[in-house]
Design brief:
By secondary structure, the chain is α+β, with helices and mostly antiparallel strands. The protein is built from three helices and two strands, in the order ββααα.
Length: 67
């Protein structure tokens, strides 16, 4: 993203965010899609966005469950 003026992020073939890199990088949909919803991963990424967990998306077989 460092050399781009405009970026697009896709999830399952659909654009979920488009715009300037800083805007897209901090978009909660992008963070959830690329990093998941684990708060530790989000903190390590340096993102400034906060993520509200989607109640419809529940952990499957322990994936994404708090440890």
């Amino acid at each position: 993203m460092g050399i781009s003026d405009r970026v697009y992020c896709l999830e399952t073939g659909r654009v979920i965010a488009a715009g300037q890199p800083d805007e897209v990088r901090n978009d909660p949909k992008v963070i959830a899609s690329y990093l998941g919803t684990d708060e530790r991963a989000i903190e390590r990424s340096g993102s400034t966005a906060t993520h509200e967990p989607d109640p419809a998306k529940k952990p499957v077989d322990g994936i994404g469950a708090a440890r």
